Amino acid sequence: MPKDHGIGASSKRREDVRFLTGEGNYTDDINVNGQAHVFFLRSDIAHGTLNSVDTSAAEGMPGVVKVFTGADFEAVGSVPCGWQVTDKHGEPMQEPRHPVLAHGKVRHVGEPIAAVVAETLEQARDAAEAIVVDITDLPAVVDMKEAVKADAPKVHDDLTSNLCYDWGFVEENKGAVDAAFEEAAHVTTLELVNNRLVANPMEPRVAVGDYARGTGDHTLYTTSQNPHVIRLLMGAFVLGIPEHKLRVVAPDVGGGFGTKIFHYQEEAFVTFAAKACNRAVKWTSSRSEAFMSDAHGRDHVTKIELALDKDNNFTALRTDTYANMGAYLSTFAPSVPTWLHGTLMAGNYKTPLIYVNVKAVFTNTVPVDAYRGAGRPEATYQLERLIDKCAHELKVDPIKLRRQNFVMEFPYATPVAVEYDTGDYVATMDKLEEMADIAGFQKRREASEAKGKLRGFGVNCYIEACGIAPSNLVGQLGARAGLFESCTVRVNATGGLVVMTGSHSHGQGHETSFSQVVADMIGIPEEMVEIVHGDTANTPMGMGTYGSRSLAVGGSAMVRATEKIIAKATKIASHLLEASESDVELKDGAFTVAGTDKSVAWGDVTLAAYVPHNYPLEEIEPGLEETAFYDPSNFTYPSGAYACEVELDPETGQVTVERFSAADDFGNIVNPMIVTGQVHGGLAQGIGQALLENCAYDSDGQLLSASYMDYAMPRASDLPFYDVDHSCQTPCTHNPLGVKGCGEAGAIGSPAAVVNAVLDAMRSGGKDVEHIDMPVSPNRVWEAMNG
Amino acid sequence: MYNFDVEMPTTIADAVAALGREEAQPLSGGQTLIPTLKARLAAPSVLVSLHGIPEMKGVCKNDAGQVCIGGATTHATVAADAAADYPALASLAARIGDPAVRNRGTIGGSIANNDPSACYPAGVLASGATIVTNSREIAADDYFQGMFDTALEEGEIVTEVKFPVPEAAHYEKHLQPASRFPLVAVFVAKFADGVRVAVTGASENGVFRWTEAEEALSANFSADAVAGLKADGSEMISDLHGSGTYRAHLVGVMTKRAVAAMG
Asked: Other CB atoms closer than 10 Å to residue B184's CB: what's the count?
C-alpha cells in the first residue's frame, strides 16, 4: 500500500504551486532600488593579443555610469579553481590566471573584454559599440591532439604548454595492466568521442550586485547551486571580502545541471562594480551569451581497451583520454575527467586490473566543467560501448557477457580506489529484462521491417559515485574545499519547524522531500515543516547541490539535526510527564510514557521550550534549535540497467527512440514521484546527447552551434514514454536514510544504450558498423550505412 | 535593438508610400526580422507594418480556380482556410515552425525573405504560382533568384500569391533537428500538363526545380520513376547537420516519398 505522507510517499511538489502560477522569485525578478545594468563586450575571436581597449567615446554616451576593462581588475584576484590535480609524475597541474575581464589576450569567443554599466541595458549596449578594441589575431587551438603538439600555439604564454596535466591512475598498476594485455586471449579496442554539450538550463544566468556604503555590506543575488561556495570563492580569492560582509543569495533557480555550480566572472564583476559605482548592478545573460559563457560539458576523446581470458572474463582495462578544459580552469574542471571519471572505470564489473590515463588540455574554447553526471557519463559511455563491441566480436550475447563479469559480492573494493558498499546488479538486470520485453523484440523488429525500417536493441549498465563526498578523501585528491553538508532545525514555539539547509534546490523538489523526512521522524504533517535554502544569511555553511548529493549528504545532516531536536524534546517531555527519559517515546507527534496512556503532544513540548515555566532549566537550556554538520564516510553507489529500442530509417538515417526502460537501484526512496521525475529528466538529457546535442567549433575557434538554430535540444516528440522502475533497493550502508541519490543516473546510463541500439539496428540491415560517434545524426547514420 | 519609427498603414497604397521613407523596411510577421533587430544586425529607421492591411489578408478562390492568398495572411490561416481547396499547401503551412510562428509568420514575409531553408518557396515554385506585388505580377519561375534573393525591387511588397491548384500534390520534409526548418524538403505538384518538383533546404542557390525528376514523373508518375535518379550534389549546402552529398541523396528520397504519398 503506497504511503500518503512521510518517507516513501509521492507527496505533491509544494514548490510547484508558485512555479506554475508565476509566483516564483528568480534572480531576474530581483530589482534593487536604483540599480544600473551591465553589458559585457565579448570577444568575437578565439585567440588574439589585446593591444588596446579604448573606452573614451563610450564613457561619454548617454546613460553611461562607468566603463570597465581588464586594467581595472589587475589588483583583483584570479577567478579560482577549486581542485588541484597532481599529475603522474607527482607534479601539480598547470594553473593559469583567470581574469575577471580579459587582459593582455583573449582566449575564447565570448570572453568578456570590457563592461559598460549604464542606466539601461540598451544604453549599455549602445556604449559598448563605441568601444574600440585593437586585437591582433593569433592562430587558435581547438583540436586537443593538435594542442599538445610541441609547435602548437599556446593558449597561456606563461605556461610551458597546453597540457594542464597528464594523469595516470592507478600509476602503480600500469605495469601489471600492460602485462595482462600481453597475456589476453582477446582484446577489444575502441576509439570514441564524448561530444561537447551546452547545459542550457531554462533560466539563463543572472547576477545582481548590491553594496551598502553605510555599512560596507555586499550582497550578491545569483543563479547558483551553491551560494556558500560562491561566497567563499569570490570573497576569499577574488575580491577579498570576508564572509561577514558578503551575503550571497540564490533564490529560486530554474535548473542548474552543473553549470550553475561554478563561480563565474560576471558574479565577481557585479559585486565589484556595485561598490565602484555605488549602485546596484544587474546582469541578465541572454541566451546567446549563455552559449559562449556558461561552462560546457563532456568533450573527451578516448581510446579504451579491454582484455579478456579464454572464458570471456574481463582481466584488464586500459584507457587513454584527452579531456578538454577550454581556455581557463572552471571551478571543478580538473576533477571531472580524473576523480569523477577514473574512479568509475570499473563500472559494474570485477575487472581486476585497470589503468586510466587522462591528458587535460587547454584550447581556445569556452571552459568545460561538470554537467549532469560529470565524468561518470564519460566513463559509463566508453565502458558500455566497449563491452558491446567486445560481445559482438566474441559473438556472445551482450547481456550474458555483462552478467558473467558483474561484481557479485559487497562491499567490493575496485582497483580504482573506491569501495562499493551495496548493490545488486543481477537484480536490476533481471528487472530490466522483464520491463524491456526482450521476448517480444523479434516481433517488433519484424513489424518495423514491414514498414521498411530497421529496429535495434541496446543495453547499458551503470554505476555512479554520488553523495559527494568524504572531505578527508577528496582533500587528499586535490579538492580545495570540504564536501560536508549542514542543517539547522529551528522549532518554533507552536510546533512548526524551519529547516535551514546548506543544500540548494533548483528543480529537485527539496522543499517537498526534505519536509517528508523531518515530518516522518517526528510524526507531524509535512505542512508543519518549512525548508529554507539559498541564502548565506539564514542557512549554515554548506556546499550546495550537485553530484546527486543533496539527500545523501544534506539529508543526512538534516536527520542528525532532527535527532538532536528529538533528543532534547524528549528530555523536556519526560520532565512534563514526570517520567524517566528512557521510558518516553515519540510517536505520531506525541510523547508517550511506555506502557501507559500518559502523553504530551509535540506542540505542548515545543511551547514549554520557549515558555519555560515548568521546565528543567537547571539541566537544559530553553529553546529548541539544533545544527548538525554531516561529512559522509564514503560515496554512495547508485546503479542500474537501461535498455533502449530504436527504429532506424535506412533511407534517411533518421533514428527514433521507440522504447526506453530504466531499472535503477537508488537505495531507499523518500518520494517515488520525484525520483521518477529526476530519471525522466536525466534520460531526456542522455538521449539528447546521444541523438541531438552537439556543441561544435570550427578550426578557427568559432562556435558553430551558438543558438537553437543549430544546437538541437531534445523536444518531447523526440522522446518515448519511458518505463522507469526503482523497486530494486539495496540501501546505502553508511548514511542514516540509506539513500544513494538519483539526479544524474538518467544522463549517465542512457547514451550508450541508445548508440548500442543504433548499431544493432544497422547490423540487422546488413551493415556491421564498429562505432558511430554521438550525436547519432541522420547524416552520420546514413554515411555509416553507405560508407 | 536600435530605435526606429513604426508606421501602421491600413492600405497597400499607404504602405507603399511609407516605404518611400529613407531606410524604411517592411515588417510582416517579423519571424526573421524581429530576431535580426534584437541581435542588432539591422538598423532600419522606420518599420512599415503590413499587419493591419485588410486587402492583404485572407484566402479565396478566383474565377480561374486559383487559390489566392493575401501577402499578410498567416500560416495558421492558410492551414485552416486553404485545406479544402489546396490541401497539400495547407499541410505545408500547418507544418511550418511552431504555433507561435504560424500565428505571426506570413506567406508574403516568407517568400520576400526567401530563406534557402524556408517551406513556402517550395510550395510556390512547384505550384507555378504567380506573385502579385503592389506594381506587377511575377511568375514563380522568375521570382526566386537565389539565396535570400528575389525579383522584388526596393519598396515593392508581395500583396498576394495566386496558386493554380494541381490535380495532386504533396510536401515531404526532412527536418533539421535543431531549427526544425527543412534540411531538405520537396514539393511535388501534378498538373494535367506535367509535373513540377521544387526543392528547398538543399541548394546554395535557394529553392530550385528538379527538372530531371519533373521529366521522369511527367512521363511516368510513380515512385519507381524517380527511384534511380540522383540530384546533383555540387551546389548543395554543407553544414553541421548534413553534407552536400547527404542533402542530394535526401532530395531523391523526399521526392520519391512525396510521389508515393500522392498514391
From this structure: 31
Residue A1 has pLDDT above 70, yes or no: no
CATH architecture of B54-163: 2-Layer Sandwich (3.30)
Pick from B40, B179, B253: which is nearest to A652 by CB? B253
Element (H, E) at A303: strand A300-308
What residue segments make up the domains of chain B, in order of their start? 5-49, 54-163, 168-261
Which of A309, A458, A306, A315 minimizes the C-alpha distance to A397? A458
Given the candidates 3.40.50.2300, 3.10.310.30, 3.40.50.2000, 3.30.43.10, the CATH classification of the domain at B5-49 is 3.30.43.10
Q: Domains of chain A, with CATH numbers?
A: 34-138+202-255+260-293 (3.90.1170.50), 300-469+634-786 (3.30.365.10), 484-630 (3.30.365.10)
Contacts of A129 in chain B (CB under 8 A): 40
Q: Say whether pLDDT at B194 is over 90.
A: yes
Nearest CA in chain B to A288: B39
Q: What is the pLDDT of residues A689-726, one digit of tens each?
A: 999 999 999 999 999 999 999 999 999 999 999 999 99
Q: What is the ipTM of this complex?
A: 0.96
In tens, the pLDDT along A350-359 reads 999 999 999 9
Integer CA distances (angstroms), A495 to A14, A557, A614, in order: 20, 21, 17
Q: What is the pLDDT of residue A3?
A: 82
By Cβ distance, the residue of B174, B241, B243 closest to A652 is B174
- Inspect the interface and report whether the beta carbons of A704 and B246 lie closer than 8 Å: no
A312 touches chain B (CB under 8 A): no
The CATH number fitting domain B168-261, selected from 3.10.450.50, 3.40.50.720, 3.30.390.50, 3.90.550.10: 3.30.390.50
A358/A370 Cα distance (integer angstroms): 16
Give B240's contacts in chain A (Cβ within 8 Å): 694, 696, 704-705, 710
Check A782 against B177: CB less than 8 A apart: no
Contact A668, A646 (CB under 8 A): no
With residue B140 as reference, give the H or E element that holds it.
helix B140-143
Which tens digits make up the pLDDT trace of A364-391?
999 999 999 999 999 999 999 999 999 9
Chain segment A177-225, per-residue pLDDT in tens: 999 999 999 999 999 999 999 999 999 999 999 999 999 999 999 999 9
Q: Which residues of A are less than 8 Å from B183 in CB distance?
A: 778
Of B178, B243, B246, the CB nearest to A709: B178
Which residues of A, range 635-674, sit inside 8 Å of B by Cβ?
Answer: 651-654
Q: How many angstroms away from the CA of B189 is the closest CA of chain A? A: 22
